Amino acid sequence: MPMNEQPPWGRKKKPSGPEDILAVLIQKIRDAFAGKEGGTAPRDPQGGQPADEPPSLFAGAGKILAIVAVALLIQGAFSSFYTIKPGEVGVILRFGQYSRTTQPGLQFKIPYVEELAKVDVETVRKEEFGFRTRTPGIGSGFDRKGYDMEALMLTGDTNVIEVAWIVQYKVSDPVDFLFKVRDVAQAVRDSSETVTRRIVGNMDFDYVLGNREVLAANAKQELQGQVDRLQCGISIVTLQLLDINPPEQVKPAFNEVNEADQDMKRLVNEAEETYNKVIPKARGSAKQIVEEAHGYAAERINRATGETNRFKAIVKEYQGTEEVTRQRLYLEAMEGILPQVDHVYVIDKNQQNILPLFDLTRKTAKEPPAVTR
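Structure (tokenized):
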């Protein structure tokens, strides 16, 4: 018989698969609780039946502890590695206290000492007020029934208005998000209602209807400040006022007011159109008249100044050569007067004879005399 072979009566049957290993493990646990060692009881020295011995409590407990220790080791080995998906972060707690934050990928933690909490930091969460989305998607359906109290508000001029809005936010600080506030979604709802109702309550009805973008921007800024003071660990992405309407009970009166307001605006626009046509024309005409008056005044002043200077020049010449100047003035005056006279009579110095002077340069008798200015 070869040395490395074992005789058939001493050979032990080895388990052939995982099922056999599990069966053997279960059988050993049962034997441990039954107080057996090795699965078989010792035989009687004379070769008779196995002798009954008292069960060993410590031997069975030791086997149980060993099995439990092996199970714990296997579980710890599997739980020490974990995976963080893209868009998530892992918050590690060591003995219940914050230790570190891990990024996406395969990570390691100390088993039974550190705990893992995963937080989605990329998904945009939302809270709806005054309505609920029934079927999200391209053809979204909304349900307003039963949410009237969320939308009813009182404006600054004591009018009732219905405001439906939505708040979207993302996680910015996973640690604050997990441990500083118990229910972040409820905190966002309460803070958003407080901010929106206060802002709407400080404005009158018409301003709220016509300035929803301004109100939404102010509400978003104040809401971000409030959740930061609460240390919610979130960042407000948007706050949008979706629908602003008067309640159903007052809609007919509200429509009449809108119609009157539209008529008033139409009349104001027509009046402004007429004003823009008439007033500029009148202003242009007035400016033209003023400019013409200034031009006429400048002309008269310049003419008077010229005549004055001419008269002064004549006086100066007259003082120098009196007879010549008088004769020249007389001739110049006659040059301007005689062309306007139809008949000229020449009278001698003693007025004895009258001699008519006919202007033969004229073509016909009906031709008016030439005027010299």
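DSSP finds nine helices and 13 strands in the chain. Confidence is low (pLDDT under 50) at residues 1-11, 36-42.
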